[in-house]
Amino acid sequence: MENKESFFQWDSILTGILVCICVPILGYALILILFDTLASFGLMESVTSSGGRAREKTVALLAICCNLIPFNMFKNRRMDRALRGCIFPTMILVGYWLYRYKDMLF
Known about the structure:
Layout: H1 13-40, H2 53-65, H3 68-76, H4 80-100, H5 102-105
Helix pairs in contact: 1-2, 1-4, 2-4, 3-4
């Protein structure tokens, strides 16, 4: 069996973009599930003092920070193109987060 170049290359900018779009979405869902579970067991307040908006801001920021996992994986595997692809969606998400919560930050 010959070692042929595959159609889809794992070390590509497209891989980084796709992974770093999917990871925050999954992270957001998992963090919401975790927060709701903790609230249902009474280990955490179900509503924060600012009407839930602070929790929404925190969950969104934690979801964006989930991109550190693929960053580190790509860096350790020396997948420079995929690492470069991670930058674009992460910067867009951070910019959107700043725009959405600017009234609470400044």
